[in-house]
Amino acid sequence: ASARAAEICRLAPVIPVLVIDDLAHARPLAEALVAGGLPVLEVTLRTPVALDAIRAMAAVPGGVVGAGTLLTPEDVAAAKEAGAQFGVSPGATDRLLDAAEARGLPMLPGAATASEVMTLLERGYTTQKFFPAEAVGGAPALRSLASPLPQVSFCPTGGITLANAPTYLSLPNTLCVGGSWVAPKDRMQAGDWAAIETLAREAASLPR
Ligand code: 3PG
């Protein structure tokens, strides 16, 4: 269930987690992030324009646009219809995963504990989101999962910054990290796409 999700996670060290309030920001934001070297974009379904933003961003050459904060089968259907190429969820339920599998939407489902990781692994998810990464113990907690569960790889998300990302990216069970720091709200509101491109370039050059 995870082959495409793993491929996507290997495209860049960082997946920007995007909260888009203004539809007009979608295209220039995607262009800036892709130009800066971050092709994989997660648009969270937390704002009224999120689905239209996915539609607009999916047209940007070089981008791989997914939908985040998927909670329900209805979210999966809407994300797929908007053109999302993958989905991300903070946790996982059977209803959510059933819907994603039925619609062929590759998923990066969230887990925070060994039991949650094992439950996803039983369904074949060998690539998972580790969430909320910093709050549940950070890189030491994630590193600890590698010993008993070496077959599972992660995209940790939640509280990750340019400063703490390298520690995660050095772990054997981390493919990439997710974070909102590359698209700060104030830079988006100012239309400062050059600043966001610079943040993307810094993030894209993080070693793995
Ligand atoms: C989220 O769900 O908002 C992501 O985990 C991003 O978290 P961050 O804002 O701490 O990077």
TrEMBL record:
Under PROSITE patterns, the record lists: ALDOLASE_KDPG_KHG_1
- Gene3D superfamilies, A to Z: Aldolase class I (3.20.20.70)
Give yes or no: UniProt keyword ATP-binding: no
Give the catalytic activity: 2-dehydro-3-deoxy-6-phospho-D-gluconate = D-glyceraldehyde 3-phosphate + pyruvate
Q: Which terms are listed as keywords in the entry?
A: Carbohydrate metabolism, Lyase
Instruction: Give the EC number(s) listed in the UniProt record.
Output: 4.1.2.14
Q: Give the similarity note.
A: Belongs to the KHG/KDPG aldolase family.
Protein name as catalogued: 2-dehydro-3-deoxy-phosphogluconate aldolase
